[in-house]
Amino acid sequence: METLEKLKQIRSRHPAPPAGSAAEAQALARFAQFFSSFAPDRVDKLVPQTYAEDVYFNDTLKAIEGRAALSHYLRESAEAVEACRVEIHETTRTANDEHLVRWSMMIRFRKFRRGVDTWTVGMSHLRFDAEGRVVYHQDYWNAADGLYQHIPVLGTLINAIKRRL
């Protein structure tokens, strides 16, 4: 199903916390806390508090439905990095009761370019349910700079293409 159609369905099923409410502030704080230090033990502990059971998640690498599948994916992702953290710079509430969260992410990979901090920027489009848990999470970021360019051979090709543009 197309992402925009999925979002329309989620909007119809999940009323958002009122603008300026304590529930909204707590939801944003839980999201920020979750990604402030991305580690396997934190994933296990914080996914149930942060994400709704029927969450839709798309980080441009993979689209996932359901909290159990998301927890598994995020745990594997956290295990693949030596360190990862997200610094939130700005949050904007939209007319549709959703949030756009602008961030920078630092990743230090276990397998690629060991010991090197890789920084990338992006934005998350979020919708929270009435309990303040994320029911829709769509990331927009440059995966070529943040991930692909660090993979042997593929990274060399991406950098060659960039030089030619």
UniProtKB/TrEMBL annotation:
Domain SnoaL-like: 32-137
InterPro entries found in the cross-reference section: NTF2-like_dom_sf (IPR032710), SnoaL-like (IPR037401)
Stretch list, region Disordered: 1-21
Domain of life: Bacteria
Protein name: SnoaL-like domain-containing protein
Organism: Arenimonas metalli CF5-1
Lineage of source species: Bacteria, Pseudomonadati, Pseudomonadota, Gammaproteobacteria, Lysobacterales
